[in-house]
């Protein structure tokens, strides 16, 4: 994100209050702020193209003390309006299913009428956590929303269509 995009992002900022069930949280950080997040334990993830990248805070650092007043790292990131959302793999080994089942998903049922047997699949989208679960008879996969959108687009290109949407 460039400085203009970060300014726009921060105008509509909503504090991150959910559990982090992924490797960490992606951050909106401009060049002048990099030293702040580095001191808190953030890491730089370079773009594979060699141009740009992004800062992210590992999940294990979010609950660390950041200030003598009792503020945690996640509190400072929210105060600075930096949290974009989850990044990396959804980590169900480290987080119990309880972390996810405390949140209500929106359920999207999909069908591929072009395949024999009308292949069915279901997306469970946990908006507050910004993750999704894709389930078929053969697979169950958790994804951060950014990756879930890519998967959704690929499924639509492959012929899947949404047949229902419901709140659980």
Fill in the keyword field for this structure:
single chain, 168 residues, alpha+beta, 2 domains, 5-stranded antiparallel β-sheet, 4-stranded antiparallel β-sheet, 5 helices, elongated
The SS-based structural class is: alpha+beta
List the secondary-structure elements in sequence, H or E.
HEHEEHEHEEEEHE
Question: What is the share of helical residues?
Answer: 10-25%
The shape is: elongated
Detail the poorly predicted runs: none
Mean pLDDT: 90
Q: Order of strands side by side in the largest beta sheet?
A: 8-7-6-5-9
Q: How many separate helices?
A: 5
What would you call the quaternary organization? single chain
- The CA-CA distance between the termini, in Å, is 34 Å
The overall strand count is 9
Any overview of this molecule?
- The chain has 168 residues and is α+β, with helices and mostly antiparallel strands.
- The protein folds into two domains: 86 residues, no CATH class; 65 residues, no CATH class.
- Helix content is 24%, strand content 33%.
- The protein has five helices and nine strands, in the order H-E-H-E-E-H-E-H-E-E-E-E-H-E.
- The strands form two sheets. A five-stranded antiparallel β-sheet has the order 8-7-6-5-9, covered by helices on one side.
- The longest helix has 13 residues.
- The mean pLDDT is 90.
């Amino acid at each position: 994100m460039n400085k203009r995009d970060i300014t726009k992002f921060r105008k509509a900022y909503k504090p991150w209050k959910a559990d982090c069930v992924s490797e960490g949280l992606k951050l909106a950080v401009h060049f002048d702020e990099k030293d702040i997040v580095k001191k808190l334990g953030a890491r730089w993830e370079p773009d594979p193209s060699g141009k740009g990248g992004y800062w992210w805070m590992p999940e294990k650092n979010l609950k660390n003390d950041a200030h003598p007043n009792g503020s945690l790292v996640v509190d400072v990131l929210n105060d600075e309006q930096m949290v974009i959302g989850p990044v990396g793999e959804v980590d169900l080994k480290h987080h119990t299913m309880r972390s996810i089942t405390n949140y209500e998903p929106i359920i999207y049922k999909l069908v591929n009428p072009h395949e024999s047997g009308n292949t069915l699949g279901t997306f469970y989208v946990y908006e507050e956590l910004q993750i999704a679960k894709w389930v078929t008879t053969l697979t169950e996969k958790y994804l951060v929303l950014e990756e879930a959108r890519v998967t959704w687009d690929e499924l639509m290109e492959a012929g899947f269509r949404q047949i229902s949407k419901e709140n659980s």
